[in-house]
Amino acid sequence: MVVREPGAEPRAAGMKDVAAAAGVSLGTVSNVLNRPDRVSPATRARVEAAMAELRFVRNESARQLRAGRSRVLAYVMLDGSNPFFTDVAAGMEDATDAGDLSLFLCNSAHQPSREAAYLGRLEQQRVQGILITPVDPDAPVLHEIARRGTPVVVVDRTPGGTALCSVAVDDVHGGEIAVRHLLEQGHERIAFVGNHPSVGQVRDRRLGAIRALAAAGLGPDHLVDLTTSALTVADGRGAGERLAGLPGPVRPTAAFCANDLVALGLLQTCANLRMRVPDDLAIVGYDDIEFAAAAAVPLTSVRQPRRRLGRTAAELLLAETTETGHEHRQVVFTPELVVRTSTLR
Amino acid sequence: MVVREPGAEPRAAGMKDVAAAAGVSLGTVSNVLNRPDRVSPATRARVEAAMAELRFVRNESARQLRAGRSRVLAYVMLDGSNPFFTDVAAGMEDATDAGDLSLFLCNSAHQPSREAAYLGRLEQQRVQGILITPVDPDAPVLHEIARRGTPVVVVDRTPGGTALCSVAVDDVHGGEIAVRHLLEQGHERIAFVGNHPSVGQVRDRRLGAIRALAAAGLGPDHLVDLTTSALTVADGRGAGERLAGLPGPVRPTAAFCANDLVALGLLQTCANLRMRVPDDLAIVGYDDIEFAAAAAVPLTSVRQPRRRLGRTAAELLLAETTETGHEHRQVVFTPELVVRTSTLR
DNA sequence: CCTCCGGATTGAAAGGTTTCACAAATCTGG
DNA sequence: CCAGATTTGTGAAACCTTTCAATCCGGAGG
Hints:
2 copies of one chain form a homodimer.
Chain A: H1 15-22, H2 26-34, H3 41-54, H4 60-67, E1 72-77, H5 83-98, E2 102-107, H6 112-124, E3 129-132, H7 140-147, E4 152-155, E5 165-169, H8 171-184, E6 190-195, H9 200-215, E7 223-227, H10 233-245, E8 254-257, H11 260-272, E9 282-287, H12 290-293, E10 300-303, H13 306-322, E11 330-333, E12 336-338
Parallel strand pairs in A: 1-2, 1-3, 3-4, 4-5, 5-11, 6-7, 6-8, 8-9, 9-10
Antiparallel strand pairs in A: 10-12
Chain A binds a DNA duplex through helix 2 and helix 4.
């Protein structure tokens, strides 16, 4: 009879305890776990009974220590509250569900310090690989991590050089088709809402916008920048108020927004201020998140293959861990314009 | 001079290598890492130089194995694509940022099998604790995990019994204030859109709705259930079409939606079908996600303190790991109604 | 009856860190 | 200049699993 102090937790059972309870050696318990076919059915049953009895839970740290690597991938998201990134993550899960892998999500929320903290911890955990949409895709730390042996795949950005795998969408092209569409609708002064030069995606979209203007023979002064501190719905609302405050002659007749969140905020301000969309202001968003189609005025937006982006990134990462002589690849998808009411008068 | 085979990775350096390079013992390297004040500045500098030189990365598995516990919390989300849950997660990050902890997010996406897989892996990893919005809050597995030593805090549900900590919002009350508001606006036939009996939160909200009707002397037949297979924007759109198809006399004049995503979908169908909101149909959502205020017709919604929910949950978990003689607590917050245009004629 | 074979099982080593009792070196004050 | 205290540094054990060479056993073939 076992007498136990009330409240004294019995130490969690390890394989050694299981072995003792089943009257076999440690090695046999390990075999039951890892190569059950090498163990006679009778023994196996006895060991499994002991495991159930003792509530044995495998210790992944010890496993990993021995094996040298884990069965975990991680995605460091730039912004967990933006549906775009959660959709990308869903695509990654499609790929990891296939293998015997877990995907852990980390949210850097645009903060370099948090990103760095997560990267450090993930590397220390010896995760099998890191997927990341970085604050700065050319930060040397990404290459350092890869060089030390943890594969890194950059998502939704293409870092310079070919030392890393990456999966991205052609943001310059996206900006171009968005503004070309507005030009075709007869607009000549176009606001770029959510200019935020530190975000590469935004820089590229703006560059595409300027190219489209140039192709139509219009100078970059036809693009009116409305800078915001971030790219949230609230930022869009604020920018909308500034836009509405511009005097008629210089006020743009159309807005190209850095992403859909900003566009939704802008749209809301228009509704509040009785500006008609698209008559007083045409609006194009970016990402085509689910809420874009569901907006007050359904939003024209540049659609990115987000789920595919995530799945491809995870597949590249897995390829990197299994292939011998892996060649880094930079995949670039092409976005497409989805035209809805917000630009059609 | 070190000659290295091209492509032959040098094995990652461990503390032993650092010790050798710095000409000190293993114990000293450990002291530099964990108790730097116990090491003379000169020695410390030498060791740190060696670590930099060898690109030493601490092995968290080994640490954890020795220490017996990790510095990781995990939140198993019910639905990563619902902004409600990412906001809850942001609240948890507020709390973990304070300590020296990481928060990993896992998305069960309403699938019991995925939830189980994540729980198993997290337990094997010996994470410091698990936060979870479970598919089934009364599943015995949660108690089993807690009994085996990994603290579990249930988020956005209150499981039966007092064997676990939990943080939730009073969904019955939420349903009650939503429908009471609609009754006050003169509606007497109310649709409940997104009835999905397997989701406890939805059951409770519906129960609250029925209580509000009863308080007004109306029977439960005044609530018209529109069931959906999930709670997404698309489900809301579909339900909207069914609702619009009901013959005039039995068609409800107001809809209480199980969450904001469904409400947004419903709203969109109304726009497509030229039903005016709130004149032809008043709509109340639930969660007050950011997009609710930004909708075509700004949405009346039941607001939950989501960030606070997350922060409190993480704090309870931390308390459980540090306090001796911890008492499990069940915290319940009270939601409030945010009235906007979608119900005000 | 002996040998050899294959399947089942064993025992010990290894993996990288932390901890802790202990030794060595240095300092304090008498 | 010494006893004792303090500061630094050491070495080995422990954490739990996996792996692998070695052993054991019962049976088949000679």
